[in-house]
Amino acid sequence: MKSKGMVYLVGAGPGDAGLLTLRGAELLGRAEVVVYDALVNPALLRLAPKSAEIIFGGKRSKDHALPQVELNRLLVDKAKQGKTVVRLKGGDPYIFGRGGEEAEELAAARIGFEVVPGVSSVVAAPNYAGVPLTHREHSSSFIVITGHEDPAKDLSGVDWAQVARTPGTKVVMMATERIGRIAELLVKYGLPAETPVAMVHWGTTGRQRSVEGTLATIAEAAARAKLSAPTVTVIGEVVKLRSKLNWFENRKLFGRRIVVTRTREQASQLSRQLLELGAEVLEIPTIKILPPRSQEGILEALSGLNAYDWLVFTSPNGVTAFFDFFFKKFQDMRDIGGVRIAAVGPATAAKLRELHLQVDLMPDEYLATKIAEALAQYESMENLRVLLLRAEVATPDLPKLFEAKGAIVDDIACYRTVPETEDVDGAAARLREEGADWISFTSSSTVESFHARFNLPALMKQFPQIKTASIGPETTKALAGLGIQPAVEANPHNIDGLVEALVMFCERACDSFR
To answer: Which of 43, 345, 404, 460 has its CA 20 to 30 A from that of 126?
Structure first.
């Protein structure tokens, strides 16, 4: 008998992926179907299994991907097929999200469901804009109103006269197009025209923009800033605290859109640092890692592992790929024998330490070409047996450097890189439509694969504000081959150095406008 399906109405939070609840993340991890809204951070879709069916059911203004009736039917139909369905809704399912209507439909169809609350933009957007909704010196209460309907219509669902009379902070959702009329009504019914107002666009994300004014001036200020939906509007004396409490918008990379081109498995380290500095991150992996076309070389090397003096790893990918093969042949890490290990940089060394392996040698300068020099200083390389573990297509310079110093080198491919073409979360489409401020490159292969997919010089001509960031000389060389000089090159040549280079450039740019 086929098991009955289940629908989870999950609040995705206001936009910052880090504000998803643990329960929401757990359910996404075992979803068979995910139906998500337009305001959901697409990065959350990566928490779902690769086999999950992903359906866009979003609605924004007049553009409805799925009418609500059809969406309700979709949830019921998928559940009747025995599927585990996650209905991912921006903010909280029961706050202006029609989650209640969807739950009613499921209940009527006798479909099992669970509602997982989410962090609402009602509180989150003002928080990230530096506006507390309550404060002992300014307001002891707040009310929430929808501004979605026309406030001038005869039978308005909102009693604006009562809103104006009610003490405390007013939070108006979905009021972008009607803020002028709403402000007029509030003044008409008694609120002072000088009452402070803040509007927060795309709150909690790197796209956040905030506009301040008063009831008398906010409509003009919003129009001047070309503010569009979605916004959260805060009306009240608490807005005055924004100048002191605006923590998010003061981050060093706030307002910059930065493209991360690393593999999906590696992107998180760089993305996390950029997000914590306030950037909007578009993860567009340009390569993915696969086994080498021929595995004969790596299998032979594993069979004669005890003949080598050194294993040399030039990237974290090489470490992962090599030990995938290793553990298919051996059951015990001790089978690696007495071989010593060299790593080109700290990221590669960190990947080895995850396996509780000690790195015996790492060059001071994190370049593959420097590893031979470092090894020669460590000991004589005459007749040393070196197993060089790296990508299928790699520069021939490194094995030549080892051999020139007397080493006997086996240059073995333990993985290959191929172009990544999927656009699971729409980041590639957004780059093509809207551009970016920065594109970061962490290897020459990411440059080559990105160019093959997007035509980098043409993209930079289309969006002249785009600058490139390189992790090191080899990556810079690949960019130079396209006629592009990166605006920054990391020093040291690692992720931390890349982030620091971006921060320093942006700080100098800000200083030049002061």
So the answer is: 43
Average pLDDT over residues 122-138: 97
At position 390, the amino acid (one-letter code) is: R
| Closest among 474, 508, 511 to 489, alpha carbons compared | 474
d(CA 28, CA 7): 11
Separation between Cα atoms, residue 455 and residue 460, nearest integer Å: 9
> Residue 154: what pLDDT?
57
Q: Angle of helix 444-454 relative to helix 427-434, nearest 10 degrees?
A: 70
Which residues make Cβ contacts (< 8 Å) with residue 332, sequence separation at least 6?
Answer: none
DSSP class of residue 4 equals P
pLDDT in tens, 285-317: 887 889 999 999 999 999 999 999 999 999 899
**What pLDDT does residue 1 have?**
42
265 band by pLDDT with thresholds 50, 70 and 90? low
Closest CA to 407 of 364, 373, 445, 430: 373
Rounded to whole angstroms, the Cα distance separating 160 from 151 reads 8
What pLDDT is recorded for position 513? 42
Both tokens assigned to 13: 């939070």
Q: What angle do CA 231, 234, 240 make, to 5 degrees?
A: 130
Q: Is the CA virtual torsion 472, 473, 474, 480 positive or negative?
A: positive
Give residue 502's Cα distance to chain centre.
17
d(CA 187, CA 165) in angstroms, rounded, equals 11
* CB-based contact 360:289 (threshold 8 Å): no
Which residues fall within 8 angstroms of residue 20, CB to CB, at 6 or more apart? 12, 13, 44, 118
Catalytic residue ranges: 37, 59, 174
Nearest CA to 196 out of 170, 228, 167 is that of 170
Q: For 2-39, give one letter per residue: b (16+ CB within 10 A) or e.
A: eeebbbbbbbbbbbbbebbbeebeebbeebbbbbbbbb
Q: How far apart are CA 321 and CA 311, in angstroms?
A: 13
Return the minimum-mean-pLDDT range out of 78-82, 116-120, 146-150, 503-507. Answer: 146-150
Between 257 and 266, the higher pLDDT residue: 257
Residues 370-384 as b/e (b if ≥16 CB within 10 A, e otherwise) read bbbeebbeeeebeeb
pLDDT digits over 346-392, tens only? 889 999 999 999 999 999 887 777 888 899 999 999 999 999 999 99
Q: Which run of H or E residues covers position 114?
A: strand 112-116
Residue recorded with tokens 């209640």: 100
DSSP of 390-456: EESS--THHHHHHHHTT-EEEEEEEEEEEE----TTSHHHHHHHH--SEEEESSHHHHHHHHHHH-H
Which spans in 121-241 are helix H?
A: 121-128, 160-165, 179-188, 218-224
Of 362, 355, 406, whose CA–CA distance to 380 is shortest?
A: 406
